[in-house]
Amino acid sequence: MPAYSINGELVKESEAKVSVLDRGLLYGDGIFEGIKMYNGYIFKLKEHMTRLYESAKLIGMDMGVSEDKFTEEVLKTAAAAEESSAYVRITVSRMGNLGLHTLLDTITVTRMIIVIPLAYQSTEAYDKGLHLTNVSMARIPEISLPMRAKTLGYLNNILAVNEAKKNGADDALLLNTDGNVAESTGSNIFYIKGDVLVTPSPDAGILIGVTRNCIMEIAKNMGFNVLEKLFKQDELIQADEVFLTGTAMEIMPVYKINDTLISGGKPGEKTKSLMKSFKEHIANCPGAKAK
Ligand code: PMP
After folding, report:
1. Ligand 1 pocket at CB < 6 A
2. What is the rounded distance in angstroms from the CA atom of residue 177 to the CA atom of residue 32?
3. Is residue 106's pLDDT more than 90?
């Protein structure tokens, strides 16, 4: 059975409700985190909580409770779930105020945690990889919204992946408004050329993924020369290998970008060794014990 909590109180699914005046619902005025629990341990919980509190700061949100207290609430909710491997979704939205003019630091928040079964990508997806394509929309620019904050308004990402799927691909390759490669719709992107591992720098307007940071560390220890920089799509499609990273998918090979096959149209060997090392890292550093 999944578990739910609101403002630190465990509640049944039927009681896990928000008001129609919730500003997360009305305006996307809120922040979130998606975290994974593997065998009762919450992977990179500290890193996700740090990003959550940074997101709050970037949008002027008063979280109402300390990071330690909220972390306890996450562990308590995870412990209450039947599943020991699960997806932990934290949502914090500003409450009860219709209208744009209210001063944000006067609004209190609702803290919601849901712990639900993991929806695994099929193993075929990892064996085959994903096909990415360009879409008509760009990643929202930093000047319009702090993109390092993981805010609730994901309509840009939802429309982008939907357009990609309608065009026969698996996901979108999002460029920023300067035409630099940014990321995919719910994951960061990397390419490998020789022994160099490259990923867009934060200046590209990306979400700084917890998985991204972890992969960069693992890759350095494996002897890759790891580089963060701004680059265009031309450079990406000339790579030896390309892959995506994210909490939900972990590491996912990319075999095709628009009509160009990457690494001969199949997951590359170096990507596969990073996938293996990442699994080992999860086993060796499982994170915070919830059950
Ligand atoms: N970019 C976007 C837009 C995302 O939504 C996510 C998923 N949270 C990521 C990148 C990957 O971040 P993480 O590794 O922290 O899951």
Report:
1. 34, 157, 183, 186-188, 207, 209-212, 245-247
2. 24
3. no
